[in-house]
Write a structure and sequence with these properties.
52% helix; three-stranded antiparallel sheet; 11% strand; 5 helices
Length: 108
């Protein structure tokens, strides 16, 4: 599983109440070291956004309910990449999406 999918899964676990906020924070901290050089920029940006939200919540800028509302969209974020054959895929906590380009018909 790629890190972006793992992050979405951990956030979903927190939102469902299966993972305490402190455990989400520790899990994320373990993965942030050098993330900008190791991961895709979209993944790094998502991780930094969550880190900021958790820090702001710890500082008292957000309530835990507000944090949950701000994190909820992250669980449904998908990254799409178009390959040389035109197949685009992305995985997330709810499954896998496969998109194929429309067929082009030539008229003589």
């Amino acid at each position: 599983m790629d890190l972006a999918a793992e992050i979405r899964e951990q956030v979903a676990s927190y939102l469902s109440g299966r993972l305490p906020i402190a455990d989400l924070w520790r899990w994320l901290q373990d993965r942030l070291w050098d993330i900008d050089n190791r991961e895709h920029p979209v993944t790094a940006s998502m991780a930094h956004e969550i880190e900021l939200l958790l820090s702001e919540t710890a500082h008292g800028d957000w309530t835990e309910n507000e944090l949950r509302e701000k994190l909820r969209p992250i669980t449904s974020m998908y990254e799409f990449t178009v390959g040389p054959r035109g197949v685009t895929t992305s995985s997330g906590p709810v499954g896998t999406i496969i998109l194929r380009p429309p067929r082009v018909l030539q008229v003589a």
